[in-house]
Each structure stands twice: as C-alpha cells, then as structure tokens.
Specification:
Blueprint (H helix, E strand, L loop, with lengths): L1 H21 L10 H10 L3 H10 L21 H6 L1
Length: about 80
C-alpha cells in the first residue's frame, strides 16, 4: 500500500513538473513559472496537486491559430496577383 502511494506521488510530481516546464508563461496562473517549479519540487506532492488544481490555465482560450509563414514575393500568391 505504501509503495502504491509513493509511486503515485512520484508520477504526479513528475507530471506536474514537466507540464509546468513546457507550458507557455501566459497559460500559468497565480505564480510565475519559476515559482511553480520550486513549489512542485519543494512541497512534493502537495505542490504538484496545487499546480494541477489552480496553477494552470484550463484551455479556455481555445487552440492557437497557426503562425503565418512568411513567403518570399515570388512564392506569395497575393503578391503575384497584384502584379
């Protein structure tokens, strides 16, 4: 029983740390990214639980639009139409 709790705690802490480290700063709430990373490591597993519960944005913003690729003038159909 103690082994299951220990493994679950370790997995949750690793998940929260990696998720926080890879997440964009604009999608993290309440604390800066470095603050959450310290909290997750120093207060494991309670810091990980806090991060998952209140620290990350829930995706309310929706998917991000893809970045527009910059085309050279000879490959840009809009530019070529204007000629």
């Amino acid at each position: 029983m103690l082994g299951i709790i220990s493994i679950t705690s370790l997995v949750l802490t690793l998940y929260a740390f990696i998720d926080c480290a890879r997440r964009d700063d604009s999608l993290i709430n309440k604390l800066p990214k470095w603050g959450w990373l310290l909290l997750i490591l120093l207060l494991a597993p309670f810091g990980a639980i806090a991060y998952v519960a209140i620290g990350r944005e829930r995706g309310e913003r929706g998917p991000r639009p893809p970045k527009r690729r910059i085309l050279p003038p000879d490959d840009d159909p809009d530019f070529l139409r204007k000629l």
